[in-house]
Amino acid sequence: MEHNILVVGGNGLVGKTIIRILKSRNPQVNVFIGGRKGGETDHHLKIDVTNPSTFQVIDDKKISLIILSVNDKSDHILQFAIENGIDYLDITKPTPDLVRAYDMAKNTNVKSRIVFSSGWMGGIVNGLAKTLAAGSSDIQEVKLFVYYSVKDLAGESSAHFMAENVAKPFIRYEDDQQVSVKHFLDSEKFDFSFGIGSRQAYNFDVPDLYILNQIEKVPTVSVKMTYNSKFITWLLSAFQKIRLFNILSLKERRMIFGSSGTGDQSVFEIIVKTKDGVEKLSLQSTEGQAELTALSAVLHTEELLKSIHDNKIYFSHQLHQPFSLLEKLKAYETIHIKSSR
């Protein structure tokens, strides 16, 4: 069967990385690149997510799977995929947008695989958490700790999300109760692996908070992050405490969060508490967050290519057997994983 895959946002950092990894692992698939300006080859398609009239080319090229790696706030691509029975994989949505899109999709007649993959690093945290317990029903608490380096290569979307939302409260969960918190507050000391050491980590909003509690029914979920620079981490916390973010313009906030380096490691750690004790899984991507996010998207895509999954709505970790996902990640040369009780 011929597989025609379209990467919308394929000219961006993560989109380009998805295409590179996907082609290297699956040379038999046809990959098309969607962008607002099109391109010089037949595989470059002019697609503007804000203008559905540009979507006709998706039908013309008989696209069977759309990978969305650019922000589509109005969900035009999602609606097009549902209406035309095209598989859909979205790695872009912050929590509020994800909840809205999921609610919309649930109220439609889905005739394809609709996959939301917007959790941290392409939605793999929730699957990896399951490897630390017999099943999600056994998990009492999940803590995610994120190490974010300003030296890492980063696209615009994460910086724009932080700029737009840093002054707004978001939700974490404690005993199935919603707790309203803000970024860069509620410090917790954590000893990071891979030579990073002890750091103060602060509140951070990622879709895994919603997914773990609302979908996987984990009663207590929190996410905290630290920057590679202890000074930057402390400074952002100080800005939040004095409410500086509330008076800065969006442009000024984007200047604060918009830096992108030439490359650095990305690390996250999952702490899972069950009735039997506490276990930890630590993951390092030596090539950074773009590489790991793109690899995750490719692993989800490869599951969809098997055509063993029914037409319905998924969160990306639901496509995988947890230990199979773990082994695939371990097999990738730039990823290192260790776990401990």
TrEMBL record:
<dbReference type="InterPro" id="IPR036291">
    <property type="entry name" value="NAD(P)-bd_dom_sf"/>
</dbReference>
<protein>
    <submittedName>
        <fullName>Saccharopine dehydrogenase</fullName>
    </submittedName>
</protein>
